[in-house]
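Hi R.,

Here's the chain you asked about this morning:
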Amino acid sequence: MSLKVRLRSLQRHLGSLQQESSPVAKKTAMSSAERMRKYRQRLKDQPQSYAIFRKADTARIKTHREHLTDEQKTRNNETARLRMQKYREKKRATEIEHGTCTTQTKKRPSTRQEGDKKRQYWRNKKQEQRANMSSQKNVV
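And the predicted structure, written out as tokens:
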């Protein structure tokens, strides 16, 4: 049985269950986004059918991305970049507001003595590394 047929049968089954649970349901006009949101919520309540739905949706999105033109790809990348920029700015603002900012750490200037300590440490490490080299690598 193909994936499309399974999804259709699940939709029919879900539809019949919904009709049985509420015999007098008042119908209101819903937008397609609201219908899809409700449909996804019903699917999430049934993990097995949700897994099937996710597989089909993933395949659909993958084929959609494969058929994008270069212009569409660059436009999508640009909008994603701007969206991420806004998100990071917003996140940084809330972190600064709450005092939990980790991106802006205060660095104190290093002194000459601290620099000399680091230099000495790395000099010793390099000497150890050279001592452990084979004689062929040591020649180069």
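The mean pLDDT is 84.

Let me know if you need anything else.
M.
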